[in-house]
Amino acid sequence: MSILDVLHKPVGIPEQYRTLSEEVMVQRVSEIKKELGERLYLPAHHYQKDEVVQFADSTGDSLQLAQLAAENKKAEYIVFCGVHFMAETADILTEDDQTVILPDMRAGCSMADMADIHQTERAWKILMERFGDTILPLTYVNSTAAIKSFVGENGGATVTSSNATAMVEWAFTQKERILFLPDQHLGRNTAYDLGIPLEAMAVWDPISDRLEYEGDYENVKVILWKGHCSVHEKFTLDNISEIRRDLPDVNVIVHPECTFEVVQQSDYAGSTKMIIETIENASPGTSWAIGTEMNLVNRIIQQHPDKKIVSLNPNMCPCLTMNRIDLPHLLWSLDEIREGKKTNQITVDEKTARFAKDALNRMLERA
Predict the structure, then answer these.
(1) What is the number of structural domains in the chain?
(2) Are residues 191 and 100 in the same domain?
(3) Which residue segment(s) compose the domain that 292 sits in?
(4) Do 162 and 210 belong together in one domain?
(5) Residue 366 domain flag
(6) Which residue of 114, 302, 328, 340 has the fewest CB atoms within a 10 Å radius of its CB?
């Protein structure tokens, strides 16, 4: 079942949690966390709401949190405050006797859902017929366990926005071409930074099962899956023009999931970790426009009152699926655990997990 199927199912949270005051929920979550102690580990992604982040044992990006969960051998329950693919990765990397819980099963990722295993297997068959055994698959960690498993079984690896450059470089030591799933923008921006011209990049459309490319196929070095982040793709060149007009001394910093044109017109581009560290190390009084998820931007603004910080797109909404994890769902999940229930447990079957772990380990060995 895909996360899109889950989105259309009735929400399982009991109505009583919707009527509780924030004060009561905060108190109850605090009490349960104290009661469970080391039996509970609560990681929260950077894009989570403050009402959830306040209870986090760790904050970070998706892979970092999964690794931290795997290192925490004492935790019996891992309540992952992120989205579905992140909880899957945590289940892959943790021990069999550890239980991974996602507070709201509707918390998905539109990008991850833009590449399902059936589309990928069809694409691979067609691309193998066209290019032969010259392609190595790479997948962004923002992908389903099934896609990670496919990549691992075919000799490829996962990548993050922090290490995409190193992993693409490694991939080209293995094969003549790469297939980069599921975010075309991260793939394009990374390959271009490594000196691969746009003319050597094709785009695979999984809806029409067609390779979008004009020219001699022999010149193709990078095949980009036609997927994107619904948040980061909304930052535009107009946003950059307007912010530079209003704040002439502004530094524009964006995530590499933004479009090629936006990244090229920005002053800096990098992972969530890079964005956070760049702002932390910036001089007081400097001006910054950040092109990434709004919850994180607002948190950075609060943490750095000595700098002028704005969102690159002032009309940007937070990541809607990530924001399905809220205080009521968190409290409900903890109540269920206290009652001995494993509601919304995320499990990845053994075969899928084995090959997905291969893909993850190939990356971690080069981290």
Answers:
(1) 3
(2) no
(3) 232-311
(4) yes
(5) no
(6) 340
Joined together, the tokens standing for residue 304 give 């750095």
Pair of tokens at residue 316: 């940007």
pLDDT score recorded for residue 367: 64
- In 3D space, the residue among 175, 5, 208 whose CA is nearest the CA of residue 106 turns out to be 5
pLDDT digits (tens, 9 = 90+) for 17-44: 989 999 999 999 999 999 999 999 999 9
Find where tokens 């950040």 sit.
290
Let me know: does 152 contact 359? Beta carbons within 8 Å: yes
Please check whether residues 57 and 119 belong to one and the same domain. Answer: no
Give the type of residue at 105. M
Strand order in 77-79's β-sheet? 40-41, 77-79, 99-101
What is the domain-level CATH number for residue 92? 3.40.50.10800
Please write the tens of the pLDDT for every residue from 202-241.
999 999 999 999 999 999 999 999 999 989 999 999 999 9
Which SS3 state, helix, strand or coil, does residue 78 take?
Answer: strand
Pairwise CA distance, residues 271 & 183, whole Å: 14
How far is residue 300's CA from residue 274's CA, in Å, rounded to a whole number? 13
Judge if 68 and 27 occupy the same domain.
yes
Residue/partner pairs of 22-26 with CB below 8 Å, 24 or more apart: 22/51, 22/327, 25/327, 25/328, 25/331, 26/54, 26/327
Question: Under 8 Å CB-to-CB from 83, ≥6 apart: which residues?
Answer: 3, 45, 62, 102, 107, 108, 109, 112, 321, 322
Question: DSSP 3-state assignment of 358?
Answer: helix
Last residue of a domain, one of 194, 229, 264: 229
**Does residue 358 lie in a domain region?**
no
In a shared domain, residues 221 and 241: no
Strands 210-212 and 201-205: antiparallel
Per-residue model confidence (pLDDT) at position 9 = 41
Judge if 145 and 218 occupy the same domain. Answer: yes
The pTM assigned to this predicted structure is 0.91
**β-strand pairing of 43-45 with 58-60:** parallel
Same domain, 54 and 94: yes
292 and 329: one domain? no
For the stretch 148-189, pLDDT in tens is 999 999 999 999 999 999 999 999 999 999 999 999 999 999
